[in-house]
Amino acid sequence: MRYLTILGMMLFSLVSFAQTETAYIELKNEGNDALRKNDFATAVEKFEAALAVWPEEEAQDASMIFNLATAARRIKNHEKALEYYKKSVDMGYRADFSTYYIASSLNNLDRDEEMEQTLLKAIEDYKSSSVLAQMKKMLTTYYLKKGAEPYNQAAQILASAASADPEQYDEITARANNAFADAKPWFEKVLEIDPDNEKAQASLREINSRLK
């Protein structure tokens, strides 16, 4: 009887060990199933649970890391998306797409300077990437936005001259020109990335006509 008890305990231990050994695979598969169903929150939960029990001696699944980042992005958890897209890059998996989404996450987190540097490097590193155009567009959109702030301020300053005392005109013009000068580098940056950008070209023509 004692022998049977010991044998039963050994078998139970072996089954438990086997279940533990395969748990990460089952969790990964459950995450993939959730992802296919667009249940992104569950996908994140399952993928992270898989990572928590992933055997140290086993290399982590790079595609799962990328999918985890994507699921996090789809539920707008930008911090988590950033974390796992960075890990995807470190693992060398779809580095161009991962870097693009790193920049997107930084953009959503208002970490503009980091986004800019990420995109500038990516544009050099991934010149043949299918997401190169999207990278450039994200960067030029940022530059246009930054340039528009002082540019619009300059326009408002000039508009105030219509109701101002004529003696104030020179001072108003000087303030407007300072704002135009602040805007100019941003539009020049746009043209460095996209030489045919019509918005930047038109803005620079106006600025240069004012700053003669």
UniProtKB/TrEMBL annotation:
The keyword Signal is assigned to this record: yes
InterPro entries: TPR-like_helical_dom_sf, TPR_rpt
Keywords: Signal
Cleaved signal peptide residues: 1-18
Gene3D superfamilies registered for this protein in UniProt: Tetratricopeptide repeat domain
Protein name, UniProt field: Tetratricopeptide repeat protein
